[in-house]
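Ops channel
N.P.: pipeline sanity check, posting one input/output pair.
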């Protein structure tokens, strides 16, 4: 469990607003740009950052994040690079929580215990592993707990009640509710259905609940704020980062997050 993550989410709740959690792919459009983008997002009002660890087969991702991941891989970005980027971000003064969003194959190749130990040492607060089922995550969950990391489960609108309940048992940090039927960035959030999913999750867990997949605008954030604790923004931000020269990516990303954070404060 990460105290830094818990504190950030508690602070947003105390301020009566939904937390903003932007996603960036490590190494897109470059490592240098990532090191500039994340501090800009913090300054713009982000409450926590998801750092996407590039992988060749990101099965939960749509075209936008797939493209960013492939771009980063072609530049040699790896799990080791992600660890280094996290360390450099902490050294540069980033204080908000950072969570790795990545797939299990790189964790397994790196060695799960070394991965958790190095991530914690680099200043990472948690992990989201979309392709690791709850039924098979006990080993990684124990290692995350050992090194003070939150292992954050994903639940979907198609998840049966018993799987939602199992995912919530012992969860720390927050629970990630998938707001679309499908992969990231290709559909609008199904607000009514994901609202029902969040209500179901709250029956089984007393920790913050986030909604991601399909959140793109301030209006989307205001809708999420009606029933959830965190608005997670991925593909929309990656689109903005890639929509122009690399040397302006941090400024463009900051402008979007500033707009989303303002919507959260006004909700």
């Amino acid at each position: 469990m990460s105290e830094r993550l818990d504190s950030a989410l508690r602070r947003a709740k105390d301020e009566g607003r939904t937390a903003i959690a932007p996603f960036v792919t490590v190494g897109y459009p470059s490592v240098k740009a990532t090191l500039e983008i994340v501090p800009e997002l913090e300054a713009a009002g982000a409450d926590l950052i998801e750092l996407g660890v590039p992988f060749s087969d990101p099965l939960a991702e749509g075209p936008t994040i797939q493209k960013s991941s492939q771009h980063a891989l072609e530049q040699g970005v790896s799990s080791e690079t992600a660890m280094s980027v996290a360390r450099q971000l902490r050294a540069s003064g980033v204080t908000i929580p950072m969570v790795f969003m990545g797939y299990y194959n790189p964790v397994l190749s790196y060695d799960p215990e070394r991965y958790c130990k190095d991530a914690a040492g680099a200043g990472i607060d948690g992990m989201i592993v979309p392709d690791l089922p709850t039924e098979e995550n006990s080993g990684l969950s124990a290692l995350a707990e050992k090194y003070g990391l939150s292992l954050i489960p994903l639940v979907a609108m198609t998840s049966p009640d018993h799987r939602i309940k199992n995912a919530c048992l012992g969860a720390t940090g927050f629970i990630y509710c998938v707001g679309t039927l499908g992969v990231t960035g290709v559909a609008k959030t199904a607000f009514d259905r994901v609202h029902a999913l969040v209500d179901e999750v709250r029956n089984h867990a007393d920790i913050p609940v986030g909604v991601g997949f399909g959140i793109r605008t301030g209006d989307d954030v205001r809708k999420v704020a009606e029933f959830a604790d965190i608005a997670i923004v991925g593909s929309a931000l990656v689109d903005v980062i890639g929509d122009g020269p690399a040397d302006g990516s941090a400024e463009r990303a900051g402008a979007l997050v500033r707009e989303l954070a303002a919507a959260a404060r006004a909700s």
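N.P.: looks fine end to end. Confidence is low (pLDDT under 50) at residues 183-187.
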